[in-house]
Design goal:
15 strands, Thrombin, subunit H, elongated, single chain, 331 residues, 6-stranded antiparallel beta barrel, alpha+beta, 6-stranded antiparallel barrel
């Protein structure tokens, strides 16, 4: 038997450039073939690393504490300025009383109504009216004299209201029926002669036309008498006993009333009854609702004693009936 072949050497073979550049397996590669040594860091490097790490930790802790402090301050400010302590019962009562005292109340309804109707209101003076031609009102069917006109210096004093852009004036016929001359006085104090253009004895309504109108004159706003209910507010503007431009207030106290004018034999029907004061001089004046709309023309008062003074019952012709005399369309 021959000898076994030689075993390959584990030593690196030489190369044309010297020994092989790789060490034996398991041996760390060094330039000398020896195992590398672990050189511990110097104390100076360890100190620098420790300080940097500690500085980072301190910065993080500082930011956390700063955020916590800011949140605490925000809570304190909210409690101090935004969320005050609850009010006591006395403080609430005082605040309510103070608020109510500072509120300006609206003007009374009568004041608003008067301002609304004033530019349309006129005073009517009928000259040389015979005393017997001043009818009044009495409970139907009985007839007792109750004059609705107020005697003036030279005739009968009554009231009226402008109802259209032509300046036509509605009034009670009995105020002007026997007049030889009629003078009207407007809200600005100017006067003008007037003539009767329409007579409606069945409703005691007359339509007057003034010779001229002031620029301040304005037609009234007409309401719907069919919407009137018992208990509604009622206002009358007139010249009771010659007291020009007076207003009285009350309520609608009845509907569809009737009365017969003494001396005329004419019975008026479908009238609105009010408890607002009606006295001589109010005849022909407007009956106004709380919105300042004319809903009737005053025609008389009821007084069973026969005196020309108000005792609680006044009567007015509904405006749709009265306005028909002036050619106004019904509502």
């Amino acid at each position: 038997m021959g000898s076994p072949p030689p075993r390959p050497s584990r030593e690196p073979a030489d190369s044309p450039f010297g020994r092989a550049p790789w060490p034996p397996l398991g041996t760390p590669a060094t330039s000398t073939g020896e195992a590398p040594r672990v050189v511990p860091a110097s104390p100076r490097r360890r100190t620098a690393f420790t300080r940097a790490h500690a500085a980072r930790g301190l910065r993080g802790a500082g930011l956390f504490l700063a955020g916590t402090a800011a949140a605490l301050v925000a809570v304190l400010l909210f409690q101090a300025f935004v969320a005050p302590a609850p009010l006591t019962r006395d403080e609430v009562a005082n605040d309510i009383a103070s608020a109510l005292a500072s509120v300006t109340p609206p003007p009374p309804a009568a004041e608003v109504v008067y301002q609304e109707i004033a530019p349309s209101f006129v005073i009517i003076q009928a000259a040389e009216a015979p005393a017997s031609g001043v009818p009044g009102a009495s409970p139907a069917p009985a007839a007792s004299p109750n004059g609705s006109g107020a005697p003036g210096d030279s005739g009968v004093l009554g009231s009226g209201v402008i109802v259209n852009s032509q300046g036509e004036i509605l009034t009670a016929l009995h105020v002007v029926a026997d007049a030889a001359a009629i003078q009207v006085t407007f809200a600005d104090g100017s006067t003008a002669a007037a003539t009767i253009v329409t007579r409606e004895p069945a409703s005691d309504i007359a339509v007057l036309q003034a010779a001229q109108l002031p620029t301040s004159a304005a037609p009234a706003t007409l309401g719907n008498p069919r919407s009137v209910r018992v208990g509604d507010d009622a206002y009358l503007v007139g010249n009771p006993f010659g007291l020009a431009g007076s207003i009285s207030a009350g309520v609608v106290s009845g509907l569809d009333r009737s009365f017969r004018a003494p001396g005329s034999g004419q019975e008026l029907t479908g009238l609105i009854q009010v408890d607002a004061a009606v006295n001589p001089g109010n005849s022909g004046g407007p009956l106004v609702n709380r919105d300042g709309e004319v809903i009737g023309i005053v025609t008389g008062l009821v007084n069973p004693t026969g005196q020309n003074v108000f005792i609680g019952i006044g009567l007015a012709v509904p405006i749709d009936v009265a306005g028909g005399a002036a050619g106004l369309p019904p509502d």
